[in-house]
Amino acid sequence: MLLPDEQINSRIFVDIKYPAVLYKPVIIEQIHEEIEGFKTFTFKDGHDIEYKSGQYITFVKKAVKEEIRRSYSIVSSPQLNERLTIGVKRIENGIFSRELIDHAKIGDELVTTGAGGFFTLPEELSKIRQIFFLAAGSGITPIYSLLKTVLNFHPHIRVVLIYSNPSPQKTIFFSQLNELKQRFAKCFDLQFLFSNSMDLLMARLNRELLVELTKAHSVYSFDQTLFYICGPEAYMRMCTYTLQEQNIPKENIRKEDFVIHSKHLSKTAPPDKESHSVSVLYGNEVYQLKVEFPDSILQCAKKQNISLPYSCEVGRCGNCAAKIIEGKVWLSYNEVLTEKDLQTGLTLTCVGHPVGGDVKLKI
Ligand SMILES: Cc1cc2nc3c(=O)[nH]c(=O)nc-3n(C[C@H](O)[C@H](O)[C@H](O)COP(=O)(O)OP(=O)(O)OC[C@H]3O[C@@H](n4cnc5c(N)ncnc54)[C@H](O)[C@@H]3O)c2cc1C
Ligand code: FES
């Protein structure tokens, strides 16, 4: 059932007073309909939002009970000095996407908690010789930014984009991608797959076709190759399993999930359920929390009206990532931090519980 338009609060873009340190306003400068039901929104310069290719920004909207947050991947490349731009697909009955697509106009102000996410390029790219990007539909958004950055600034890397859509007309950035293909002909393989294709073997990406395409396009060994996947849940699952079956190292496969289901919430309990003190340094403030299972660090902060960064709240987006300065944090679920991230002391407050004593965190 569709929500009637009048139930949408068209003032979400204005009149919101939030502490400036944590919440940043961005003003829409340009709106472009790329295909039906998908628009890009470019924001005016002057905001202080730093980001990396592959990251998203999270918007905040005041709702009756509590604020709601939605994340949108950034399609601009910071290295190319492009203006901050996001891509949004209209979701039938969606609160936020429908508001943006149907009602947002140039000059509107949105409130964001800034950029986040780990669907980014590694700091050290010298040993990486090839990157496969696997995208379906609006999953192209973070990949488009990564693709532009790699092609323009890392010429030693061969790039393959395998991009699934219903038809060329329903393909986001179709002409822009073809232009990139022409400009970077030597190092960029662009493989569109259209489900309306007469050639049924090249229509939908399935296990067999993915194995065939990775073999056909692979120039370097899999330990020198990264894979980035973004698309619908079933598509990402199929891609991940198929790549893992081919013995591609787990840490070389990166995924970005757009649809967050609460069913992913873990039912397991930490080894220590005692109450512990957690101090969180964030935005020049130190917040003191008393955290006790079943509340996570974030849930405890929310109960005390302390506004920390978050988006999915189920350990899948990385928006709530914090650095452990002291103590130990047990995670009930983690789909975003790699083994390496955990070793460097990163943790997630939304699914994090202090164990074995008090904890100090920095965001
Ligand atoms: C890290 C991250 C990055 C994201 N990047 C983008 C992006 O670049 N572009 C973009 O358009 N969206 C992106 N999303 C999804 C976006 O944050 C919202 O979830 C989406 O716009 C729906 O929000 P809504 O308020 O309109 O719908 P809601 O009111 O939250 O949901 C309405 C219904 O739609 C379902 N639903 C929610 N999201 C989707 C979806 N993506 N596809 C199909 N059904 C859905 C819900 O389960 C629910 O039943 C991203 C999400 C995450 C976590
Ligand atoms: S808020 Fe998404 S991982 Fe914690």
Main features:
363 residues; alpha/beta; six-stranded antiparallel sheet; five-stranded parallel sheet; 19% helix; disordered N terminus; binds flavin-adenine dinucleotide; binds FE2/S2 (inorganic) cluster
Write the layout of secondary structure elements.
Elements: E1 24-35, E2 38-43, E3 56-61, E4 68-73, E5 85-89, H1 95-103, E6 109-116, E7 130-136, H2 140-153, E8 158-165, H3 174-183, E9 188-194, H4 207-217, E10 225-230, H5 233-245, E11 253-256, E12 276-282, E13 285-291, H6 297-303, E14 321-331, H7 339-343, E15 346-348, E16 352-362
Parallel strand pairs: 7-8, 7-10, 8-9, 10-11, 12-16
Antiparallel strand pairs: 1-2, 1-6, 2-5, 3-4, 3-6, 12-13, 14-15, 14-16
The structure holds flavin-adenine dinucleotide and FE2/S2 (inorganic) cluster.
Flavin-adenine dinucleotide is lined by residues 56, 70-73, 87-89, 91, 93-98, 117, 138, 141, 256, 258-260, 311-312, 317.
Q: Which spans have pLDDT < 50 for at least 5 consecutive residues?
A: 1-19
Q: Give me the count of strands.
A: 16
What best-fitting shape do the alpha-carbon axes yield? globular
Which class best fits the helix and strand makeup? alpha/beta
Largest sheet: 6 strands, antiparallel
